[in-house]
Amino acid sequence: xxxxxxxxxxxxxxxxxxxxxxxxxxxxxxxxxxxxxxxxxxxxxxxxxxxxxxxxxxxxxxxxxxxxxxxxxxxxxxxxxxxxxxxxxxxxxxxxxxxxxxxxxxxxxxxxxxxxxxxxxxxxxxxxxxxxxxxxxxxxxxxxxxxxxxxxxxxxxxxxxxxxxxxxxxxxxxxxxxxxxxxxxxxxxxxxxxxxxxxxxxxxxxxxxxxxxxxxxxxxxxxxxxxxxxxxxxxxxxxxxxxxxxxxxxxxxxxxxxxxxxxxxxxxxxxxxxxxxxxxxxxxxxxxxxxxxxxxxxxxxxxxxxxxxxxxxxxxxxxxxxxxxxxxxxxxxxxxxxxxxxxxxxxxxxxxxxxxxxxxxxxxxxxxxxxxxxxxxxxxxxxxxxxxxxxxxxxxxxxxxxxxxxxxxxxxxxxxxxxxxxxxxxxxxxxxxxxxxxxxxxxxxxxxxxxxxxxxxxxxxxxxxxxxxxxxxxxxxxxxxxxxxxxxxxxxxxxxxxxxxxxxxxxxxxxxxxxxxxxxxxxxxxxxxxxxxxxxxxxxxxxxxxxxxxxxxxxxxxxxxxxxxxxxxxxxxxxxxxxxxxxxxxxxxxxxxxxxxxxxxxxxxxxxxxxxxxxxxxxxxxxxxxxxxxxxxxxxxxxxxxxxxxxxxxxxxxxxxxxxxxxxxxxxxxxxxxxxxxxxxxxxxxxxxxxxxxxxxxxxxxxxxxxxxxxxxxxxxxxxxxxxxxxxxxxxxxxxxxxxxxxxxxxxxxxxxxxxxxxxxxxxxxxxxxxxxxxxxxxxxxxxxxxxxxxxxxxx
Length: 796
Known about the structure:
Strand content: 15-25%
Largest sheet: 7 strands, mixed
Number of strands: 36
Shape: elongated
Number of helices: 18
Radius of gyration: 40 Å
Distance between the termini: 15 Å
Structural class: alpha+beta
């Protein structure tokens, strides 16, 4: 196995069309407005009929928009999901709002201040606050304080709040709203600068809906509010995200920009939407770091990815039989383990055991006997050279039997099927061989005696060959009458012998080599009853409900933080199903009926069914926090390599525990792709390995701004370049704990992130880099799901 990266080809027929826009300002902001109208007609005395300049007509109207509370239907989606736990150290939390105009419908300016001439800043911001930063919410659980709008705007010692005139309060001023109070120094550190606000909000326009998991990219226009803070990548921490209203807060923001806010001042704001999540840094950082650790050891060497216990040294210990040691070592390499084994004689020894998952292709199971496998002893192999048993197949047969007997419903269904099969076989055998009913003996290829109305069929046959006509003539005309021909003798069915002549053949003799039509009749009559039985055995074939210890008998084969590939032994699966299906077989007749008419027998290759049940041939086991951190992790197997590859069916993908994932494939793959689940769009930064070390630095993988319709990645290019020892951290401000985590988005700063990104893109020939705005930044920060490719070496 080896690690590779594969960049997917651009989609020629995208399932959705997505566009980012800088903003979408409304024609008029929300608030109360007074209109005055007057009319002057020179030289005309209008009297009291028209409003004059001295006596104008006045009216008041209101443009409404959320102000201190946000209706739930406007909060379209949040990322990360509330109360989720994963490595979010490269993720910028964001909130999608169903109203594309909302962030620009109110003003930062206090009531009564002069209107700004330039484009207005948005009045919303998404603040990310860590544990211990809010006195009222020290655990960062997104706790808020409920108060009225009047109370929010009431002066208090040491508290600064929005300056909004009572006349500009929308709706009922006593209506409740949720609030938070942030220490002044924390607010000055965490809150975006006033001129950074516009770069953290953009508009997303989606034309179609691909139905991605998580945040659904529904059709329409949405405003997206992104935080400016990355979670700490050095420790696990809980964070609370608060969408705060900054209407009437320009003075507060100005003081924060100038560093005039101190810890003895609290900033009280309305929290329109709040949620929390936990960031748990992973080795190397999230998905890529976890996967790299699964594939490579600390020195960068390939790990052994086959499901088996670690191999002992190649040289045998002193005094050890070298041939025995070599044979045992080969057994261990194939996926076997040695377990304690008790003989019927009472002796204690050990035996080899291997579950269905093997490190190399398994040898085929011997041909199934005509009566089926009836005991574990039939499936237990004996190594005469070493005096040891191989119990894998026998243990599978016993396990299948135990699972079937433990399920009372299944056992009852299977027993009822066999009882009905015996009854139907007896009836059909009697009809097939009874004297006078075996119409097939007279040249008719269809034995109609097997139908549900044999005597009606018999009458039709007698009528067709003229027997009924002759019988009627004989009964109505005296023998020897003129013109009446002598009746021909009735056809007779030959009998074999005198004693028991005409007696029906026993069903067992017919079932030994059943005629095709008898087989078809049995299958037809029993098929409906066999459907739930086949479904139960189909689940068993996929190892559903099989104890994990039977799949992986030794923990050393699947240690913590490991990924293991395996083949599936079809013989083990056949023995498992055979043991379960055999609990109702009481003799040769039951075995023959199962072989003839049971669809599950055909699926095991013991019958003549046209279609076989899909049986897994290979798979992967992952025991890692990657499973817990990425619910919905995608595992895609392929035939072939590169652009010529074709997908293989995944028969089962189940989390067997919080950190264990099992995936079974229909065929042995040449490539396996591990991919993050498509949670919808998320925003954040990327990771890249620093030189030859295992240390990863934060970077931004660049996308083309000259081609915004596709937003294609510029392959191999990232920012900053060269990466340096700090990576992107050099463009981050420090948070209250002193960690570099806040994006420096000052538009005019030559050493800021915006200027650096624009210069880097321009150096790559991107002509549109000069007009870098909120939409351009959102494009660069868009994180597509990451993936890792595992390949088998091509045969030479």
